[in-house]
Amino acid sequence: MDESGTTKAAVASDGSGSDKNEVQRYNPAEIEPRWQAKWDAQPNLYAAEPHTSGKPKFYCLEMLPYPSGQLHMGHVRNYAIGDALARFMRMRGYNVLHPMGWDAFGLPAENAALKNNTPPREWTLKNIAQMKVQMQRIGYSYDWAGTEIATCLPEYYRWNQWFFLKMVERGLAYRRSSKVNWCPQCATVLANEQVIGGCCWRHEDQIVEQRELEQWFLRITKYADELLDGLDTMPGWPEKVRTMQRNWIGRSEGAEVEFRVTAMANTPAITVFTTRVDTIFGATSIQLAPEHALVKEWVKTDAQLASAVDAMIAEQKVARETGDIGNIEKHGVATGKTAINPFNGETLPIWVANYILADYGTGAIMSVPAHDERDFEFAQKYGLAVKRVVAPNVDTDKLALPYGEEDDAVLIDSGEWTGEAVLEAQERMARFAEEHGFGKKTTTYRLKDWGVSRQRYWGTPIPMVYCTNGHAAGAGHEGVKAGGVVALPESALPVLLPEQIEITQEGGSPLGKVPEFVNTTCPVCGGPARRETDTMDTFVDSSWYFYRYTDARNSTAPFDSEKANYWFPIDQYIGGVEHAILHLIYSRFWTKVMRDLGLIANSEPAERLFTQGMVIKDGAKMSKSKGNVVSPDLMIEKYGADATRMYALFAAPPDRDLEWQEEGVAGISRFLARVYRLVGKYAPNVQYIEHGMHADEIAPEQFAGQTAAGAALLRTLHQTIAKITEDFNGRWHFNTCIAAIMILVNEIYAAEAAMDSGEVSSATIAELLRTLTLLLVPFAPFIAAELWKDLGETTDVFQQPWPVADKELARESEIEIPVQVNGKLATVIKLAADTDEAALEVAIKAASLADEKVAARLIGKTIVKHLVINKPSGKLVNLVVK
RNA sequence: GCGGGAGUGGUGAAAUGGCAGACACGCAGGUCUUAGAAGCCUGUGCCCGAAAGGCGUAGGGGUUCAAGUCCCCUCUCCCGCACCA
Question: Closest residue by Cα to the C1' atom of nucleotide B3?
Answer without folding.
Answer: A243
